Amino acid sequence: MTNETIENSAQPYDFETAFKTANSLINNLSTVIFGANKAIRASVLACLSGKHLLLEDTPGVGKTVLAKAMAHSLGVKASRIQGQPDLLPSDITGFSIYRQELGKFEFQPGPIFSQIVLCDELNRTPPRTQAALLETMEEKQVTVDGTTHTLPEPHLIVATQNPISQYGTFPLVESQVDRFGIATSLGYPKFDEEVQLMLNGASDTKASSIEQITTPEGWRTLKEITSKVQVSEKIADYVVRIISLTRNFNGIKLGASPRAGLSLLEVCRAEALIQGRTYIIPDDVLNCLELSIGHRLVLEPGIKVNEILWSLIQRVNTPLP
Amino acid sequence: MYTDTKYQIPKYDSKTDENSNVAGDEKKLILSQGNFKKIAYLIKKANAPLPPENSHVLRIVVVACVLVGMYAAYQVQEVSFLLFISIAVVTIIGNIFSAVTRKKPYSWIKILLAIAATAVFSTTTLAVISAASQGNIPSILSPLAALFMWIIAIHSFDVPARRDLTFSLSGSAGLIAVSSAQALDNSFAVNVVVWILLSLVALNLMWRSLSQKQETVEQAVKNTTIAIAVAALVTFSVILILPPPKPLHTTTFPASIQNKIPVTNPGGLTQGGSNPAAPAKPGHPGGRVEVGGYLGFAGPLNTGLRGKLSNQIVMRVRATEPGYWLGETFNTWNGQSWTQTPSATSILTGDPVFYIPSKQLGEPVSLLYDAPQNTETFYVATALPNLLFSTESPSEIYFPDSHLYIGPGRSIRSRFAIEAGTIYTVISRDIRLTDTQLENIMPPGSSFTTGIPANELKNDLQLPKPYLRVKKLADTIVKKYHAKTTYEIVSALESWMGSHMHYSLNIPPLPKNADSVDQFLFVTKTGFCEQISSALVVMLRTLGIPSREAVGYVAGSYDPITDLYQVKASDAHAWVQVWYGPNGGWQDTDPTTSVPFTTPSPGQIILSATANFFKSNLSNLLAILAGLFISISAGYLINKRLKFMKLSFAEKAVFRLNKISSSLDIKRDTFEPLNIFMERFKFSIRDILNKDPTLELKIEELTQQLNSYGYDPQIFNDNSKTKQIQEKIQEDLDTISKSVRSG
Prior knowledge:
The complex is a heterodimer. By secondary structure, chain A is an alpha/beta fold. Chain A folds into 2 domains: 3-228, Rossmann fold, CATH 3.40.50.300; 229-321, Helicase, Ruva Protein, domain 3 (Orthogonal Bundle), CATH 1.10.8.80. Chain A has 14 helices and 11 strands. A 5-stranded parallel sheet of chain A has the order 2-5-8-1-9. A two-stranded antiparallel ribbon of chain A has the order 3-4. Chain A has a two-stranded antiparallel sheet with strand order 6-7. In chain A, helix 2 runs antiparallel to helix 3, helix 2 runs antiparallel to helix 4 (63-74) and helix 11 (233-246) packs across helix 12 (258-274). Chain A starts with a helix and ends in an 8-residue tail after the last helix. In chain B, helix 6 packs antiparallel against helix 7 (162-182), helix 8 packs across helix 9 (217-241) and helix 21 runs parallel beside helix 26. Chain B has 3 domains: 47-241, no CATH class; 301-592, no CATH class; 647-742, no CATH class. Chain B has 26 helices and 20 strands. By secondary structure, chain B is α+β, with helices and mostly antiparallel strands. Chain A binds chain B through residues 230-235, 250, 277-283, 286-287, 290, 301-303, 306-311, 313-321, and chain B through 6-7, 9-13, 16-19, 212, 648, 650-651, 653-654, 669-676, 706-714, 716.
């Protein structure tokens, strides 16, 4: 992408298109997955902000379908890594094999080189493999045998995680959880929605027949426009006040880092875009707070994220317009 | 549709904390077991080391409370200055030590403290035993006070936790209470007020430290003020229902004299004032001879002298019943001055209790026999003549000396000058008779002079000259009132004087060689107690009724806080004693005025004083109240206006929105973002919206405008756009406000 296109994408017309595209993405995903509006919204926010998505849920609620549908809507390739205790780092990044006819090693790219990577049951993989994956998330590149391979852009990892209490899991450590910009859960659908699901049959095939909304190029432009959403001083001040309060709050052992604050603002930008605004308002911050900050906080035992965040935001005055 | 706000999160409830439940279960389990285990558990729990108190401010305030308590004890002379300073220093050191070692208190310190406490206790016990064996009961108090202070000081070495600090605080409360009981005047209240303020601050700090609540200074001041108000109200209500205090009848009474300065003329009277030991010389031009302006307490009482009486407090009296504190009486009149004949004195011995034989003062034994006992303790505040005051008739005197003189005219005199700080106690038999008793005390038909010894009678009827004019007047009055008995005659003369004479302290000087009584009755017809009482005596004597002049002080004003009568120099008074036969003896009668002989309760005094204050200052108070009301409301309005003017445009807009919405009974929380608030706003006016669908669009537009005005950097960097939006917002607000009001 050249500088010119970036300039163009800031034009009002382009913003309008971006707003429409984002919303049609949401609508498109809703036709496939029933009763998971929160997760759909979160995944679109992830697409727009370029933040990796962590879904924490029990098996069988449609995580994989969501990832596949996303890939189809965006017109990109999706690959899937099934997290297992014997999964090795090279199973993700790829490896070099010796080609006798060429007389040299050739790199075989792993599943990570797709634009959307679904890592199912990430916490079932051993820490070594988790670490390798999470490293690629931050660096956006893979180094194998001394050669650096750049990952395609945009690049989105959708990881799912079984609830920690289940057997055979390796819990993600704080620094790794921090790499995910958004965390949410799908949860079970409501009764009516589940009935709808039964009537419509398995959505697996539907996911691949879903309408394509945009192209990888278009996705990239969407991301660019999202990053142009304005943040006023008041909002920055508001975010910092919230973030710093998490570091000194009864019930929170470990508060949010400055990186978490930055990440929160980027998610808020995506939220503002979905709402059709070129600037962030305090409502965006509150809407995205739990998605973006919730999973990064280390809480005292017995305290729930949504409850503690609720009592926390009650202590922070919203900046008046 | 309007209720569906985007950020709906259940309220956080601290009760769901699992930890507390676990602890509660454990407690329940243990408490359900046997009694022994229960008690063991409770003891263990009570003695478990508590978390250290980290608030240094709290520590400092508590130490300040303790020091104020110790200073108060020193002020009422419970302890000497040196002892006060050393205990205070030990306390400060102890608290610093505790603060430093609070996180890890040394276990050996407890043993050392126990040893120190035992040592102090043993010393005190020895001091008390030695004092008690000498019969000096009052001096037991000061070692006990010192013991209490030492214990607080020693305890301060081991105050790591908040609970320990509360012990120190309650210790200081004890000190203040003990000292207040010893206080003689209300200037001590400064200590109490300072202590109350400090302790409230300490309690507030303790609460903050306990609850870990962040409180602004404003809130703290507000809470403390409320606490003070509540405490004051409760205290006042308690005082209102308190019964009148009664002094305790202990085995011995306070008596002390600080500097034993022997008087220059033993058995004679001294002048008091600046040179308390010097002999009294009334009217001597060279020196100060009066007490606070009063010239009466001397050998002679010269009615020609005029003193100016000050409001200086001369003594404070704690008494079972108030009465006239009699100093001395006079029986010989020369037309201008009263003197006493004969002037012989007799010596009374005893240490420290003097028993006065009843015949010494000539009181009827039948009256003394079952007369109620009054206990009167005099705390002298100014140097006085060496007279011991008391109501009639003194029977026991507690005075720290081995000799007292009983002078002429019932006066009791000490060998030492009575200076400020002297304390003595008199137990007197209340021989005052009621009016009915006085009426019937003399057998009908008996002579006025029955029962009086012949040698005294001469003096008690003495007149320097015939006083024909006075006798004629007295006869006329007696006839007019048909008075026959002593009581009737006295009442007749008093009521005649009450209707024909005028009281004034400001009378012209007595001409040289003029007769004071004659001048008063026939020329000036104005006088104060000396003239009035002298006139009554002379009139009674012309009628043949034995009578004499008495001088002393009236009861003074009662202070319900200290339970003391405050006697001022201006309370000096002269009155008359009349002979009521062998069964009545000498009885007081006051032609000048009468004082109420009842002890009102503290509440009554405060209420009546308050009522009087309000009555006399009603208009002023109303003016002050009106002024206060006007200035407060003006200040409030101006402040509100100023605050509003300081707001930014958007803040003003939100302020207006709040105003509109408060009429709908909804209020924006400070953490509530605009959109959510607007949703609620729309919900509350849904009836109006149903009628007028365009209004909803207007509200949405307003929300959007406000948001972009406030949070879109592109807008507030562009002046023309800003103006445009401002106008639009105003317009929308007007529309909404109008429709809400009409709806």
